[in-house]
Amino acid sequence: MITSQCQNQLISGLKHTQSSSHQQIRHFSRRRIAYPFYKAPKQGRQGKYEHKTQLRFQMECFLGKPNYKGEYLDNKYFKPSQNHKPKYILPVRERGNPLIDFETGKVKDHKGNLKDDVIPPTANYHDSLHPFPHNKNCKTNFILSHQDRSYIYQKITKDNVPTQQLAVQMGIKIPRLEAVVKLKEIEERWNKKNLVTQELKNMSNTMYKMFPLFNSNQHAENLTEIPVPERTLTSRFLTVAENEPFGPIEASKIYRLPLATDLLKNLDHDESTPSPKQQHYQKQHEPKILRTKSTKRGRSVFEFKQAKVGQVGFRYGTVLRDNKKDRRVDYDESGKMIYALPESG
């Protein structure tokens, strides 16, 4: 028969196991593998020495078969865009069909076979401007064409057209117009010095064809938007209690200014006196001087000394390794750090 004491122990043990199981469920990871939402090809049965995961197999299906150079020519995202239309991955539209034959333009499956019944997926112009399909607020900006940049530089520098008038005419903000003029001056300066190499030209042309072009009739910027300084975003009034002390130190912290005493100390210095920042740098990089006895060291490692009988040499079995970390260090006459020779007698 089970006594009442055994019953109490059994019930307490069950409670303990229930609490521990609940704790395991509570700390269980809720992360799940993000498999594709469309019907993706499955890996099937693997060989004995193949250990690919399902996600790696689907990644290889997405990339396609590489050539001898390791280039995935069948993938439509391999080459950069050349028609001023960005190439962003749109899984909702392509639905697992990113492979296209670069010669015929037809869709291919992950095995390399052509699909005659599948039309190559295309995206409209507005969807192609979003690098993240689910975030419509993130949008690719438009770049100015070569003709627009030359026109802006001609009007501002040579025709002396006011920047405000040109901004209203072209629908471009004033800071962007000033940046165009500055970059155009740098470009002409580099051309005179022959600093523009062929690699820079190729990269510039490739990047120029990847981004959409600006059109003043369709993509005019908001000129009424006024840039707000960062300091004006916070309140300019400070509420201080009556019993709270408020003096020059607190005021200097709020205005982010040094104290008057520090300013007066800096004013007393001459122009030849280094600034506190320079003094700190010099103090960190000044050579450290160490005074010690110099050890005369000849050309030979061994030297003969007068010794007494019974104290000559080292005890048999003593280790004389050269890579010991606790070896004594001396300095020669030039100040170079050397390891001290073992002494005997």
UniProtKB/TrEMBL annotation:
Keywords from the UniProt entry: Ribonucleoprotein, Ribosomal protein
One GO BP: mitochondrial translation
Gene Ontology cellular component terms for the protein in this record: mitochondrial small ribosomal subunit
Native organism taxonomy: Eukaryota, Fungi, Dikarya, Ascomycota, Saccharomycotina
Location of the region described as Disordered in the Swiss-Prot/TrEMBL record: 267-288
Regions crossing the membrane: none
PANTHER family (UniProt xref): 37S RIBOSOMAL PROTEIN S35, MITOCHONDRIAL, SMALL RIBOSOMAL SUBUNIT PROTEIN MS45
Source organism superkingdom: Eukaryota
Name listed for the protein in its UniProt record: 37S ribosomal protein S35, mitochondrial
